Amino acid sequence: MAAVVFTVEGTTKDGKKARVTVTLKKFCACKPTHPNCQEEAQRDLVPKVQKVLAEFSSDELFWLEGKVNPNFFVRVMEMVTEVLEAVCITVRSDHLQGADVKVELL
């Protein structure tokens, strides 16, 4: 299965607009009750990532050499896991392994 990309735009704690892009190398199998789970995951992820984004000021989003702050990465991946657990049959570590989180200030 091809990589899946989720994009969320929101506002940082200090009022700056930002775009968060989460790329998963593979996607999980949908629960029978959630046949459109990829679309549902995108929809459900938006408010959760926006809330995480609002916890960080724009200068806290980045770490050394412009890399994403590991604390932000972990919080975003917690939200991704929560959303996938709701709509997927199983969420294994290989669904999240190699995941990438990028942040751009707009």
How would you describe what is shown here?
The chain is α+β, with helices and mostly antiparallel strands and 106 residues long. The chain has one domain (4-105): Tetrahydropterin Synthase, Chain A (2-Layer Sandwich). 39% of the residues lie in helices and 21% in strands. It has helices spanning 37-55, 70-87, 93-96, and strands at 4-11, 17-24, 100-105. Strands 1-2-3 form a three-stranded antiparallel beta sheet, with helices on one face. The model has no long low-confidence stretch (mean pLDDT 91).
Helix content, binned percent: 25-40%
CATH class: Alpha Beta
Number of domains: 1
Q: Helical segment tally?
A: 3
**Main β sheet profile:** 3 strands, antiparallel
What is the fold named in CATH at topology level?
Tetrahydropterin Synthase, Chain A
Number of E-state strands: 3
- Alpha-beta classification: alpha+beta
What is the element string, with H for helices and E for strands?
EEHHHE
Average pLDDT figure: 91
Low-pLDDT stretches are none
Biggest sheet, strands in spatial order?
1-2-3
Distance between the termini: 31 Å
How would you sum up the global shape? globular
Question: What is the CATH architecture annotation?
Answer: 2-Layer Sandwich
